[in-house]
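A protein record pairs a chain with a discrete description of its three-dimensional fold. The following entry can be read in just this way:
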Amino acid sequence: MRKDAAENRQRLLIAAREIVRQHGDDAPLELITEKAGVTRATLYRNFADRTELYQAVLEHEIEVIRGEIDVAEGCGLFEVMRKLIDVSDIYHAFASASQNTSEPGEACSPAPLLSLIAAPLENAKVQGMVRQSLTPEEVLLACRMVSYGWKLDGEPDQRVAINRRLLLVIRGLSGDLRWIPTDPTASDPADRIHRNAAAKETGPEITEA
């Protein structure tokens, strides 16, 4: 692929990600091409349709998360959950668009997402952070529960609403209450769990910094 063609494809992926986040999965494709600074013809040279575009965006986001997990030593289960929650809108967009394909179930298989959860989940079990019977499928389900319908909570700030929901889910998954932060609104609960991980060895109650 020529350099300019590769750059156009990358701009389309970035633009599609931002437009879906702002306007939802049924946003006009013209918004994406305008955001990317390319023509509609360029869009269709790279992607056959909306489904293929959203699939490419999702695959790119999954690879980004995979790279972050590999780079971040000790990246924990709750950090991974937060990352998956952040890409849930594009997964939903792809799943919705793929309903028009001949094999929608196969097209939006959760396998790539489950593969991101497996290793951090096992580490969390070893550390006593979650119950031993917890499965990757249940973790992914929890992520979806956190991400969908947050506007119904009456909280205008999405980050605050998601953090509150995530904390509630963490309380349900945790095998040791000392892993749980106390206030979901100040910052990302997953970040604070990571910062307070050493507390499990000494036993002090987790408090806000």
Q: What stands out?
A: Confidence is low (pLDDT under 50) at residues 197-209. The first helix runs from residue 3 to 23.
